[in-house]
Design a protein that fits this description.
The chain is of the alpha+beta class. It is 24% helix and 38% strand. It has three helices and six strands; from the N terminus they run αβαβαββββ. 15% of the residues are buried.
Length: 92
């Protein structure tokens, strides 16, 4: 990976991810080729926090139909990052 910003694409703010924030868990959209150690290093340098654990999963795209053509939405890799006690990400 070239940069930390190539590893972390976005902080995902959905209803389900905001429920986990009081527990110190944040959901990120990450590069498909990024591993857990790269994700941990990128989150710690970008947001200046200490990471306790990183869990990843691949969200498979769905088959969609637009008029007469069938297509597929893109696959994405997501990471659930658990921060150490007292750490918090301020995403306004």
């Amino acid at each position: 990976m070239n940069s930390n910003y190539d590893v972390i694409k976005a902080l995902i703010r959905t209803e389900k991810s905001t429920i986990a924030e009081p527990l110190g868990k944040y959901l990120f959209l990450v590069n498909k080729s990024a591993n857990k150690t790269e994700i941990k290093k990128a989150v710690e340098t970008i947001y200046k926090v200490k990471v306790k654990a990183v869990n990843t999963y691949i969200n498979l795209g769905k088959m969609k139909r637009v008029r007469y053509q069938v297509g597929k939405t893109v696959d994405s890799k997501r990471a659930i990052v658990t921060l150490k006690e007292g750490q918090k990400i301020d995403a306004a």
